[in-house]
Structure formats: structure tokens, C-alpha cells
Amino acid sequence: xxxxxxxxGMVCPFPLIEAQQAIEEINSGDELIxxxxxxxxxxxxxxxxxxxxxxxxxxxxxxxxxxxxSIQKK
Amino acid sequence: MTYLIIxxxxxxxxxxxxxxxxxxxxxxxxxDMYIAKDNRMFYALLVAxxxxxxxxxxxxxxxxxxxxxGSLPILSVIIGSFIFxxxxxxxxxxxxxTWYRAGEGLIGSWIALAGYMLMSTMMRTGVFGPFNQQMQQxxxxxxxxxxxxxxxNHWFIIIPFVLIVAFIVYKQLTKPKVAIxxxxxxxxxxxxxxxxxxxxxxxxxxxxxxxxxxxxxxxxATGRVFGLGITTPxxxxxxxxxxxxxxxxxxxxxxxxxxxxxxxxxxxxSKEFRFRMPDVKTGINSFIGxxxxxxxxxxxxxxxxxxxxxxxxxxxxxxxxxxxFMILGTWTASYFVFVRPRQKAMAAKLKEQVTPA
Lengths: 74, 357
What we know:
Chain A is of the alpha+beta class and 74 residues long. Chain A contains two helices and four strands, in the order βαβαββ. Chain A is globular.
């Protein structure tokens, strides 16, 4: 199962906070795909995911100042 | 004038570049101490303070320029710093952060910047000037320099401080690390390091400390004996634009314009520039935050750079007391903006589960 979270236009730390809330709502092993355009999120979101023990299955820049990260819940 | 323009712009551009690439965000750093129990960016700030402090006091001891910290309007510093702290959470970035995010194309930061420049001007030569003057003259302590208060040489404060910071950095670097996923590299060599790679916050902080140090002799050569500063120059821009008086153009003005340019160059080259329009709520918060930043920084005599990075390095009460109250301000605002809404949402969800419809 995949869940998509579109947080473009939100400034930090809201993309991270939204991602933290969204991952609570999915089951272990499911994936959360976060699309964001807050530059500082390129640091804070993968760091949170790694430190919380989730697996980052994909992390890429999809456009000028736009990124997508896929996080598999532990 | 040419010297002033060139060195100011260059120093600012370097700073803007390093801050953009290093994701150096003091607002985020102060906020995360509270909401994420993460002190990394605060430690990075201490590194930048230490580097600058050693450099600048060496120059002062060598007689390159003279500096006196003067007296301390303690009440104004405390109140101003606290208001500034609230403002930067609402604006989503401190004064420098707002300048460099404006360079990344964030319209929200342009809005915050407008409020910040307007209020900083109003607090100087505008309607709130007399109020600001009055605040600056109430509850003034005679000595601002910590070393002078205790009647000791400044190195007795700087050296222990540097040792503490070195110890913190050592502890942080030897901590077991989690591998943090990074973007697949698309470039190689220097282009990869400059425009793609994640910068270690301590490397970024060391570079910022060096730039903050270089700013002193560059600025002193133009007659402005101070280091990095954001608030007064931001007001000076508006004062110059509205009065046409060239007296308002100084080294600091070109410094802040340089930050904007440097960040734009860094963002553009890293494919991180795009005009981004905030939603209504973010836009309003940015404007209110920008105004509070202008009031706060004017009362406190400095923003997170002027007080938090420079006056701290000069080992003054203004710097350190200002930094503490600025951080308390960010925590107070963070509670209302981030923590409480989350608690409310969780409580509402819990209630939903207990009483099924």
C-alpha cells in the first residue's frame, strides 16, 4: 500500500510535521510518498526517517526546487 | 565607495552561498532544540561564535582596530530578543534566513522581509523612534563586556569557551551515527561538493565563523567598526530608497544585498530556485512575523546574527542574554504554532476512537 502526501508550498517545519503525522496513519511495511518543495526538508525529512528507523526506498529531485521521498514504515 | 560596494557584496554573497548550501537555519535550530530535542544547529552556532571570537580578538589585540562594547540596555535587550524569537518562528526564518530564502524564491520570505524592513525603519527614523530611544535609555547597566564586568582579560573567557565548544564537537562527532539517505549524485568533483552534497553543519559553521571574522576588518576599513549585521542595514535600504540620502548607504547595506545574491546563485546552480507562493495563512504569519522581527531586533540592538552570532563572539552580555531570550521566544511561539495544534489533533482523534459515532 502506498499513501501520497503532497505538501508543496508548505514551509519548514510543516512538511516534516505532516509526514510524521501521516506515517502514524499507515501500516507497518506500507510506503509514504512525500512531495515537498521546502529546501530545508531535504535535510530534515530523510534525517527524521533514518533516525526513526524507517527505510527510505527512494529520494529524488523531481523538478527545480521540488523533491519526492518514499518512506517505508518500520 | 567602490571598495565598500565590492567587499560588502562579496562578503554577503559568500555568506548567502554558504548558508543556502549548508542549510544554516538558526530559527529551525532553536525550534528543534525544543520540538525535536535536537541541539545540533545550536552547537554549530557555538562553533561559528568560537571561530569568530578568536579571530576578532586577535585583531583587536594586534591593534588593527579598536572596539568598545559600551553600556547595556538590559531591559530592552531582554524584551526585544523575546519578541524577535516569536517573530522568526512566525516568519519561518531569522533575519538572515529570510534574506537568503528570499533569494531561493520564497514569496513568503519576501513578505516577511517587507514587514521587517518597514518596522526596523519605523523603529529608527519613524513614528516608533522616540519609543525605541526611551527603551534604550531605561535600565542601562554600565558594562556590556563580560570581561570588563569581572575585571579580567577577555582571553580568560574566550579560551574556556573555545575548550567547551571543542569538547561538544568532539562528543558529537564520536557519537554513533545513523546513515542518512541522500539524493543520488548527478554531478561529480567540485560541482558535486558545491551544489549537491550535504554539508556537515560543523563545516558550514566553521565557514560562517571565518566569514563573520573577515567581515570585521573589511567593514572597519570603511569606518563601520562592526561585523555582520542585518537589521540596521535592512532599515538603511528602505531609508535610502525613501529619502534618497546616500548617507544611509554603508558596508552593511551591500552585505545584506550580497546575502540575497549569493543565496540566489547557490540556489539557481543547485536547481533549488523557484518562485513559491505561500498559502494565505503562511503569508499572513510571515507578515506578522516580519513586523515582530523588526520591533524585536531594533529594541534588542541586534538579530540572531548581530546579537546571536556577533555580540556573543565579542563576549558581551547583550549577545548572550539576547541569545537566551531569543531562544525562549522561539520556544514559546513553537508551543503555540507546532506543539499545541498537534496535541489538540491527537486528543480529538483519541476522543473519536473512544466514542464511536
